[in-house]
Amino acid sequence: MGRGMAGRVREHMRRSMPTGEDWCRHHGGQQRGKVTLHLLLWILGVGLILLILITLGDRQAFDLRVARFLGDIENPALYRVMVVVSWFGWQPQVVLISVPLVVLLFARGLLPESAGLLRALLIGTPVYLLLALLGDRLRPYIMITAMPTYREIGGVSFPSGHVINYVLFCGFLAYLTYTLVRHPAARRALLAPTLALLALVGPSRAYLGQH
Asked: Please, are residues 23 and 183 in contact by the beta-carbon 8 Å criterion?
């Protein structure tokens, strides 16, 4: 009898918990998703064109100008903000933050979304290694010995592993938030920190003297 009651409770909980289809069914989220995907495709195209134009020129001269410009900015408050922004991209923070989010989506019945977020987390390193072979750019503190840096790390300066992982993981998380969360205030509250990390991670890596 006890097992029968437990089975009925589990069945009731399974039926009452919203599935991925329930979360994604609302028309507003579908429309936002379509508009966002089109916008992201345009941004990606423009970004690739700018990247090609930059790499066709004297890359070292460009890197030196940017590094010197950022090195002249001395602001303790800004420095602390940049350290915090980059903090989320180091280990073990990456695992401790990302894995529970993947599990949460899975538990909510959002299986494709959970799988997508997991893929975004896993493909960051292979993408970084591939682009690093093509980039072959020195770290700023190697080019300018007097330039302060937050932490000397190995590898090359382009691309930034932080930026790739933030764009893939935080970008997909922002997309899910934008399309799944129905309440506007809650949606904006959840989007604000994610978009802030996306906007600031690139400048933070350069300001800290590592890219």
From this structure: no
Do residues 184 and 190 make contact, with C-beta atoms less than 8 angstroms apart?
no
Q: Please state, in angstroms and as integers, the Cα–Cα distance from residue 46 to each residue in 29, 39, 55, following that order.
A: 26, 11, 14
Give 12's Cβ-side CA count (13 Å radius).
6
Q: For position 34, what pLDDT does the model report? A: 66
- 197 pLDDT more than 90: yes
Q: Is the peptide bond before 112 cis (omega within 30 degrees of 0)?
A: no
- H helix intervals, 108-211: 111-122, 124-135, 140-143, 161-165, 171-180, 184-207
Q: How many residues does the structure list for the chain?
A: 211
Q: Name the strand (E) or helix (H) holding 45.
A: helix 27-56
State the chain's mean pLDDT as an integer.
76
Tokens of 109: 């019945």
- Alpha-carbon distance 20 to 108, whole Å? 7
Cβ atoms of 196 and 88 within 8 Å: the answer is no
Do 88 and 97 meet the contact criterion of CB atoms below 8 Å apart? yes
Q: How far is CA 174 from CA 18, 127, 192, in A?
A: 20, 20, 9
pLDDT digits 0-9 by tens, 108-153: 888 888 888 888 888 887 877 777 777 667 776 666 666 666 666 7
Average pLDDT over residues 37-52: 70
Question: pTM of the prediction?
Answer: 0.68
Residue 154's alpha-carbon distances to 30, 46, 160, in angstroms, are 43, 30, 12
